[in-house]
Amino acid sequence: MSPLSLAVRDSSTMLRRNLLHARRYPSLTLNLLLTPVMLLLLFVYIFGDAMSAGLGGGADRSDYIAYLVPGLLLMTIGSTTIGTAVSVSTDMTEGIIARFRTMAIHRGAVLIGHVIGSVLQCVMSVVLVGAVAVAIGFRSTDATVLEWVAAFGLVTLFALALTWIAVGMGLVSPSAEAASNNAMPLIFLPLISSTFVPLHSMPGWFQPIAEYQPFTPAIETLRGLLLGTPIGHNGWLAIAWCVGLAVLGYFWSASKFNSDPK
Questions:
Q1: CB of 66 closer than 8 Å to CB of 55
Q2: Residue spans of alpha helices (H) in 173-206
Q3: Residues of 171-209 as b/e, b for ≥16 C-beta within 10 angstroms?
Q4: Backbone angles phi, psi at 47, to 5 degrees
């Protein structure tokens, strides 16, 4: 077999391993998935009327649902990738990686399996949260087929970028608990973005913090694709953030994995 065929075969094996782990131990995924679902229900049914005032123009709860859901979908990705950091750290600290290093398998297959498995879990989590959103009233009637395809591509690319960052966090963490704590910015950043309220309704000193981070342009781009709101320069910024984070996470992870003596 060619080196490429061996790499694909070994990566597929590692992917099946990670998916089996996720199926046998679903509690971590479910716990992380509950965070965006609970926030969705909380902000719609408890704070919905009050938060909709920040949208202006006589917006009501249904308008706020439409505004909120795109941000919560991307927050779901950040929350799901925390499980990836924990899984990678567990592999590194429990000795299985040392065993893999002694076997005739492609060196990068372990990380590739984690990344592909995480992206698949992120997409499935987004679908589940999206289903809850539809059940409580979210609609995207103006989006064309092309815009839906673009939205799916953005979600996948964003999941890939955050997954590589989560893998790097897992590799540098001494334990699964530390990996979970180190990856908390992946949930914290959406809380200080345009997920819940528009940037113009925030205090002036806080607006740059919310604007110049990866989640806000991605959220505004997804919001524009699903709801027809102006995207402006956010589309290019979102792609640049995704590509930059994916490249940074890849080289960070590869460097740490290849240099780790364990």
A1: no
A2: 176-182, 185-191
A3: bbbeebebbbebbeebbebbeebbbbbeeeebeeeeeee
A4: -105, 0
For 59-80, how does the pLDDT look when each residue is reduced to its tens digit (9 = 90+)? 778 888 999 999 999 999 998 8
Q: Name the residue type at position 235.
A: G
Give the residue from 167, 75, 79 showing the smallest Cα distance to 116. Answer: 167
Distance CA 157, CA 176 (A): 26
The token duo for 60 is 């009501």
pLDDT in tens, 227-238: 988 999 999 999
Share of the chain above pLDDT 90, in %: 43
Closest CA to 239 of 253, 255, 254, 225: 225
Residues 6+ apart with CB under 8 A from 49: 60, 61
160, burial (CB in 10 Å: exposed 0-12, middle 13-18, buried 19+): buried
Ramachandran bin of 143, using left for φ above 0, alpha for ψ from -120 to 50, beta for the remaining angles: beta
Alpha-carbon Rg for the chain, nearest whole angstrom, is: 19
| Cβ atoms 167, 88 nearer than 8 A | yes
Distances (CA, A) of 85 to 12, 133, 198, 219: 20, 27, 30, 23
Contacts of 137 (CB under 8 A, 6+ apart): 62, 65
Indicate the angle between helix axes 109-135 and 234-259, nearest 10 degrees: 140
What is the rounded distance in angstroms from the CA atom of residue 260 to the CA atom of residue 188?
A: 29
CA distances to 86, 137, 163, 242, 262 from 257, rounded to whole Å, are: 15, 45, 15, 22, 9
Rounded CA separation 206/221 (Å): 21
